[in-house]
Write a structure and sequence with these properties.
The structure holds three protein chains of three kinds. By secondary structure, chain A is mainly alpha-helical. Chain A has helices at residues 3-34, 41-61, 67-94, 102-123, 151-173, 175-185, 187-192, 197-223, 230-245, 250-270, 278-292; strands at 131-132, 141-144, 147-150, 225-226. Chain A has eleven helices and four strands. A two-stranded antiparallel ribbon of chain A has the order 1-4. A two-stranded antiparallel sheet of chain A has the order 2-3. In chain A, strand 2 and strand 3 (147-150) form a beta hairpin. Chain B is mainly alpha-helical. Chain B has two domains: 1-82, no CATH class; 85-365, ABC transporter involved in vitamin B12 uptake, BtuC (Orthogonal Bundle), CATH 1.10.3470. Helix content of chain B is 72%, strand content 4%. By secondary structure, chain C is α/β, with parallel strands linked by helices. Chain C folds into two domains: 28-148 and 281-359, Rossmann fold (3-Layer(aba) Sandwich); 151-277 and 363-376, 3-Layer(aba) Sandwich (Rossmann fold), CATH 3.40.50.2300. In chain C, 46% of the residues lie in helices and 17% in strands. Chain C has helices at residues 2-26, 44-63, 82-94, 107-120, 133-136, 150-163, 177-193, 211-220, 231-244, 259-265, 287-297, 307-324, 328-336, 378-381, and strands at 30-37, 70-77, 98-103, 124-126, 143-145, 168-174, 196-203, 224-228, 249-251, 273-277, 361-367, 370-373. The chains are: A mainly alpha, B mainly alpha, C alpha/beta. Chains in contact: A-B, A-C, B-C.
């Protein structure tokens, strides 16, 4: 296989990896802070994308045609509305169930995801059909032999990278990030230190959901299509990625995201069967990894009270 | 009247009322009628709970188990015979029974042992596809195929045993979810098993009696062929129910409960965690696989989209709705979940949505389910 | 205890009254007919168009004072998924009150459901599914079809596109029986017309990302990329072709002939070729009548490509019920003997497998955001050039 073709696949893999990493970061944040897996994350991503889409429709209806304004508008609407939704979910569904068995929380968030998905399918006009997402990024391509680099891929990659760096800075260099890490480490001591536990939880959920909304808009811009079930698979993949990297560890999540994308790309390219087997391959490897390292690659240091 | 016969009378009355309700529920076609019936039944149930009647009924059930169970089976037969000529009601009843069998299997897995399984639909699918392939290409008697469906599900489940044993909690959940998706995707991309087009399944035939042809008695009476499937479904679910009860009440069940409640302590007491988890997982999968095999033969056609993640969620929710570890609860929940959306045409489109909302509400406000499992009876005849 | 008994008794009484009441109501002139199509999902535009057209036929018939019965159409959604289709087919067929059905746009669904119709004895007329096996793959007397099969479509397609001067093809098809059928017949036809097939790729109907297949295709440098499948995937493949910089002509089948294809792609759809059996609506014998009546009835959605066939199928069914009464066996017998019946799509005759022969295949090209008949387009006259043409 020539270098150009290889490069093509690598570029594609990086894109996917970035999206998965963004979703996985959300999962990891929630787990770190509250010890919960919020399974509706993927569907929150989808709702965010649809919110962005509605913003686009609204802006176009108002006659604003400037691509840049539309792009910013979509992003702002998607991220803010999902931050809000994330906080609401945390406040009313997750916090009250803090002490319930983990299976219950898992199920409640799974069902919540179903509610979100069905609500969009039923109540968004013509929701069950895939919707074309506008071409808002420049469509120039640069060809190096058989390797075509798309301008929008580069922009999306850079954007995703910025967001990840931003989250990293937020968590590690700001006071709020300090509070989040404190709560993740030990809830009671953090409360003793004067940290407003509930507020931090809400903020963490808002942050994670906002990041997911960004990932969703990225997905929409890349594929130029959105549909109501896009959140489900992304959610499961993001979850698997977070698990591979070890829950509670942001770098693990990012690593997991790119690893999963790499698995998919390798599966698509290297396997002699059709590329549709890539998901089978990737998930099989995930399961095998879980057997080898039951708590993820970057293992969770946890103690269990007997 | 002695206490014992009073008990029996209460229990029998409850069963009779239940079957009348079931018959009217299935028979009514108009939407207004259904809503009225549901409303009245809901009021009746709440009122009886308030007045302590439901407590009496459950006491009646537990003190006369054999009689009550027998009567329930007879009642189901009566309901079936009532609808002998209508295809669709019988199809619904058979579906409820098969789902019940599958959910009882899942119940053993996480109601008793705490082994999370979000790929129930995948094992159901294994049973279905086994039946499809064996029926089409071999001449193995179909009753044998049903058993083989269970065996196949157990075999496929053994792939998951190692991951399930080594992981806990969320990680275990992810493993089963990943497996479910893997299974469905594999079916879709693989052409030997029909691919996305699915497979046709020849109907069941036992000793020359073709399950797929209507039973004609004389010129007038043409009984729906679904009666055959209801019969098999009934046998399967009764067997599964009896099995579940026996397991629960034996020392096997005791060990399983111990594993669920606290693994570390159970291990300290000498209970072999791995062995019991493997047993529960395999046993549950066998039940799910057998139900799947019969289901495939009943429907005549299966496709990978039958076994998506959403369907696994439905199975898990039925168990949760009824009350984890409570077989009777699973019975009621299975009936509700399958019959309600079919009858309320108006909510057909919204059924997943409403259904998810109901589960959320139950988890928030009544996490023990509809008919919570009672305390274990250590003294025969005593119920908490 | 007595309160309980009273409320239960009254519930039962009410229920019984309602059951008997609704039963009495049906003893009158009402006849139920079924319609099955994809009302939700990626191809719902076609399904809804078909449903509206069939509904139009029922409404016009109910408005006709000479009709012997009053018709009620029961529309069921098969979501273009084989298992859902089988479920709703079972539902319709097991309902004794439904006398006949007009069924299926998606071939993948139809091929699964035909056995159900045979099992329950429900006579059906297929209105849009093109897979030949639906009628020719079995001996079920219940199954008929008014539209043509994909064999003709692909014969004409291969001939025509090869005739335009293209040499090399890459075929992408979905892995349902529908896509596989297209692959089979097109490959055979292309071999006869002298085109060369460089590679064939099968994709799943839910697939989002085609970079793997398209990158491999790009390396082979084909003149044309042929797609055998439905609109949602067609939209994705075409837009991803653009992103990878593949400069080849995009050729599709009747599966992508819908407005949703054009809305999904915008300017990228320009120049796409597709083929469909049957003459364009305005050239059909009853075309203008159909379009006018459809507009009058005020349906918000367009009838799409197969609406006229759905209308014709429903009309044929209603005519037959008028003739012999609401009895499934009799309707089936008469339908089997249909020969030279007039309809808006021309004369309908069912052969021994229930298949109607539709002679004309129309070629279409997307021009300025609309599907235009090839002969009327600026591509045919030479004012515009297809990709790769000189």
């Amino acid at each position: 296989m020539d270098a150009g073709l290889l490069g093509q696949f690598v570029a594609n893999g990086m894109m996917l990896g970035m999206m998965y990493a963004l979703v996985a970061v959300g999962f990891t944040l929630f787990f770190g802070v509250l010890d919960v897996i919020k399974f509706s994350h993927g569907d929150v991503l989808m709702v965010g994308t649809f919110a962005g889409f509605s913003a686009y429709l609204g802006l176009s209806a108002m006659g604003i045609d400037n691509v840049f304004v539309q792009l910013v508008g979509i992003l702002v609407v998607a991220v803010c509305s999902m931050a809000f939704l994330g906080a609401v979910i945390a406040r009313y569904l997750v916090l009250p169930l803090k002490s319930a068995p983990p299976l219950n929380i898992l199920l409640i968030t799974l069902m919540l995801g179903t509610v979100l998905r069905e609500a969009v399918r039923l109540f968004f006009p013509d929701g069950s059909n895939p919707k074309p997402f506008p071409y808002l990024l420049p469509t120039d391509t640069w060809s190096f032999g058989s390797f075509t680099l798309r301008a929008d891929s580069v922009i999306l990659l850079l954007g995703g990278l910025l967001v990840i760096v931003g989250v990293h800075v937020l968590i590690n260099k700001t006071k709020m990030g300090l509070a989040m890490r404190a709560v993740a480490q030990d809830e009671e001591t953090a409360k003793c230190m004067g940290i407003n536990f509930n507020m931090i939880v809400l903020l963490t959920f808002a942050l994670g959901s906002g990041v997911a909304a960004f990932a969703g808009v990225m997905n929409g811009l890349y594929y130029n299509e959105i549909n109501f079930s896009m959140g489900l698979l992304l959610g499961v993949i993001g979850f698997s990625a977070a698990i591979i990297g070890g829950l509670g560890n942001i770098y693990g999540a990012i690593l997991g995201g790119f690893l999963f994308a790499a698995l998919q790309t390798v599966g698509a390219v290297a396997l002699p069967f059709s590329s549709a087997y890539k998901d089978v391959f990737a998930f099989a490897v995930v399961i095998a990894l879980m057997v080898w390292r039951p708590t993820g690659l970057i293992a969770e240091k946890s103690s269990e009270r007997v | 009247m002695t206490d014992k016969s009073k008990d029996m009378l209460i229990g029998l009355t409850a069963i009779v009322l239940g079957s009348v309700f079931l018959i009217t529920f299935i028979a009514i076609e108009s939407q207004v009628g259904i809503l009225a019936l549901i409303g009245m039944t809901a009021i009746a149930v709440v009122v009886s709970a308030r007045m302590g009647i439901s407590k009496r009924i459950s006491e009646a059930f537990s003190s006369n188990e054999a009689l009550m169970n027998g009567t329930v089976i007879v009642a189901l037969l009566v309901v079936t015979v009532w609808f002998r000529e209508d295809h669709f009601p019988l199809l619904m009843i058979a579906t409820v029974m098969l789902y019940l069998t599958a959910c009882l299997g899942l119940n053993i897995q996480f109601g008793y042992t705490g082994v999370v399984n979000f790929s129930g639909a995948a094992f159901f699918g294994v049973g279905c596809y086994t039946a499809a392939v064996l029926n089409q290409h071999t001449a193995i008697p179909h009753l044998m195929v049903v058993v083989l469906g269970g065996v196949a599900a157990a075999l496929v489940g053994s792939i998951l045993i190692l991951p399930v044993l080594r992981t806990r909690g969320h990680y275990a959940a992810v493993v089963t979810i990943a497996f479910g998706i893997l299974f469905k995707t594999f079916l879709e991309v693989n052409d030997t098993l029909g691919g996305p087009q699915g497979l046709k399944v020849p109907g069941m035939e036992v000793l020359g009696w073709n399950f797929n042809s209507n039973i004609e008695i004389g010129d007038e009476i043409e009984l729906s062929f679904y009666l055959n499937y209801v019969a098999i479904g009934l046998i399967l679910s009764v067997l599964a129910f009896a099995l579940t009860r026996r397991v629960e009440r034996s020392w096997v069940g005791l060990s399983l409960d111990a594993v669920r409640l606290d693994e570390t302590v159970a291990a300290c007491f000498g209970i072999n965690i791995r062995r019991w988890k493997i047993t529960a997982f395999t046993l549950g999968n066998v039940l799910v696989g057998m139900a799947g095999a019969v289901f495939a033969m009943m429907l005549g056609f299966i496709a990978p989209t039958n076994f998506a993640f959403g369907d696994s969620l439905i199975l898990v929710s039925i168990v949760l709705l009824g009350g984890m570890g409570s077989p009777w609860g699973t019975v009621v929940a299975a009936g509700l979940v399958i019959l309600l959306p079919e009858k309320l045409q108006a909510i057909q489109e919204y059924r997943f949505l409403l259904y998810a909302i109901v589960v959320i509400l139950i988890l928030l406000f009544r996490p023990q389910g509809l008919l919570p499992r009672g305390l274990r009876a250590y003294v025969p005849g005593w119920r908490g | 205890m007595s309160v309980l008994r009273k409320s239960t008794v009254s519930a039962i009484a009410l229920a019984m009254v309602l059951t008997v009441g609704s039963g009495l109501a049906e003893a009158k002139d009402k006849v139920k007919v079924g319609f099955i199509g994809p009302l939700t999902g990626g191809v719902s535009a076609n399904g809804i168009g078909g449903r509206n057209s069939a509904d139009l036929a029922v409404q016009l018939r109910n408005a006709d004072a000479n009709a012997k019965y009053e018709y009620e159409m029961v529309a069921l959604d098969d979501e273009c998924k084989p298992n859902v289709g089988v479920q709703v087919a079972t539902k319709a067929a097991s309902d004794k009150h439904i006398i006949g059905g007009v069924t299926h746009y998606c071939s993948a669904v139809a091929i699964g459901a035909v056995d159900i119709y045979n099992k329950f004895g429900l006579p059906v007329i297929v209105w849009a599914a093109v897979l030949p096996d639906i009628t020719y793959g079995n001996k079920h007397k219940e199954v008929h079809r008014v539209n043509g099969t994909m064999i003709n479509q692909n014969d004409v397609a291969a001939d025509f596109v090869a005739g335009l001067g293209y040499r090399n093809w890459v075929i992408i098809h979905d892995t349902t029986d529908y896509g596989k059928g297209h692959n089979k017949y097109f490959s055979e036809a292309l071999a006869k017309s002298g085109g060369k097939i460089l590679a064939t790729f099968g994709v799943t109907s839910e697939q989002q990302d085609f970079t793997a297949e398209l990158t491999k295709a790009k390396a082979l440098n084909p003149d044309v990329i042929y797609f055998g499948g439905l609109t949602p995937i067609g939209v994705r493949i075409r837009s991803q072709m653009e992103k990878l910089g593949i400069a080849a002509e995009f050729q599709g089948t009747s599966g992508i002939m819908s407005d949703a294809f054009i809305t999904g792609l915008g300017p990228l759809a320009e120049g796409t070729l597709a083929f469909r059996e049957g003459a364009p609506v305005d050239k059909l014998p009853g075309g203008k009548f159909f379009v006018q009546k459809y507009k009058e009835q005020g349906y918000p959605e367009s009838p799409e490509a197969y609406g006229p066939f759905a209308f014709a199928a429903m009309n044929l069914l209603l005519d037959t019920i008028e003739e012999v009464g609401p009895n499934r066996k009799k309707v089936r017998k008469v339908l089997n003997k249909t020969s030279d019946r007039d309809s808006i799509v021309g004369k309908i005759s069912f052969d021994d497998h229930g298949q109607n022969t539709v002679a004309a295949i129309t070629k279409y090209v997307v021009q300025d955001g609309k599907w235009v008949v090839w002969e009327d387009s600026e591509y045919a006259s030479g004012k515009r050039m297809l990709v790769g043409m000189k």
